[in-house]
Amino acid sequence: AERERSLRDETERISQLRLIAFVAAAASGIALLAGWGRAALLLPGLVLGAGVYVALANIHAKRRRRARWVGVRRIVCEQGALRVARDWNALAPWTGETLTPDHPHAADLDVTGHASLVRLLDVTSPGPGRQTVLAWLTGEAPPVTELRARQDAVRELTPAVEWRETLTAHAWTAGRSRRADVERFLSWAGEPAWLLERPALVWAARVLPLLIVPTVSLAFLSLLWTRGVLPQPDRWLVGLGAFARQWWMLPFAAGILLTVFTRRAVSGRLHAAMSHLGGLAAYAEMLAHVESSAF
How far apart are CA 85 and CA 76, in angstroms? Predict the structure, then answer.
């Protein structure tokens, strides 16, 4: 808990430094465009502020991920202590599938329920992990050889406390990937390629950035050249910049229109493709953790 608080405090300080860097860069940029102050000081302030902001944003993201991970590890340890103490009221509730009351033994043997075996063994991911545990406990008994193999695996993993706690933390982090999100992703993956069936949109999406970025950049540089913020280059480049200042709105507006007309169709598919990513990335980290050790 102390490590988690320390990381969160550090994250908060970095966030404040990001804000200061952003304000410094924005103020320098506004003053530069408005012609206030000395360009020799404002331009380095803009570049330095933007660079510091980007660097701090990267550090901030890493510290936040680390703080979240330490928080999950803390919860794993707290829940483990509650299991040992059989504190069923404080233990996290079972969020997996529930069985019908007519199951032959689940309720009578306390396999499921408030003070039950599934809650005692609930160190799995909310998705397939809990389904597998429930199927093992309530389904038909497997062959004796399989049972002995499971017992051998339990004996081998018993002393690996740190490894098992890390695995549980990965499994609970993977719980962010809801089954509905995964099913939505699989449905999207099986659909026809909507965008590839519209080659005009594909080529427009390819060509417009090649027009927008250099045109807007030249228009901005032309503005700086005109205001004397930057020394003027060769005449042909100055003329090209003046041309860009007159026509930069055309490709920019075309890009906006393309976004407006395709937003609904594209955003729905993007959400379907990306809504599961956080959870599936956690599954990848969990599998990498499993592969990191030999048994």
Answer: 14
